[in-house]
Design goal:
By secondary structure, the protein is α+β, with helices and mostly antiparallel strands. It is 42% helix and 24% strand.
């Protein structure tokens, strides 16, 4: 079981939320599809209930504090709620360095709700000319995907869509992005 991958993903999500909304010492709630969470911790064969039980058994000992997990069933679909205690949010605020690329992306989207693909590409190009920008299939929920060839800069895949005069992005791990296309 790779709990470190989950811890890193949670830190990344917490830092992104803090950059967008500011820091508050509070419990943070995250929701994962069971398949996504199972792939992240490298336990793809576990059923939903088994997955929650195994995660709960390994919930102690991280710098994020005691994580709590719960299976939530809604309209026949399950998702797993992960609760990070206030000391986890505080740890991320205090100890996790801000990724300058992510800060620049958030600033672009925060200052320009209808930013163009060229503006997004410009942010990528500030950090490396070796990135991928490709149109997504017509059946996809997004228009473009952008990511760095060097994951040391930023390991996430940024899926971008123009919606009602606004540009939005969602970040995905590579595995989640690949699953999105299936």
């Amino acid at each position: 079981m790779n709990m470190q991958a989950l811890i890193q993903n949670l830190k990344d999500q917490i830092k992104e939320a803090q950059l967008k909304l500011g820091y508050v010492k509070e419990t943070m709630h995250f929701y994962y599809p069971p398949k996504t969470l199972a792939a992240l911790i490298e336990e793809p064969a576990l059923e939903e209930e088994e997955l929650v039980k195994k995660l709960q058994e390994h919930a102690n000992g991280s710098e994020l504090g005691h994580l709590q997990f719960a299976l939530r069933k809604e309209e026949g679909q399950g998702r797993i709620e992960v609760n990070v205690p206030p000391e986890g949010a505080e740890y991320v605020n205090r100890a996790v360095k801000t990724n300058p690329f992510l800060a620049d992306m958030i600033a672009l989207f925060g200052n320009n709700h209808a930013c163009s693909l060229e503006q997004i590409r410009s942010v990528f190009e500030q950090y490396s000319t070796e990135y991928v920008c490709q149109k997504m299939p017509e059946s996809a929920d997004f228009d473009y995907v952008l990511y760095f060839e060097d994951p040391q800069i930023d390991a996430y895949y940024y899926c971008v869509k123009k919606e009602m005069e606004h540009t939005i992005y969602h970040r995905f791990t590579q595995k989640d992005y690949e699953a999105l296309l299936d």
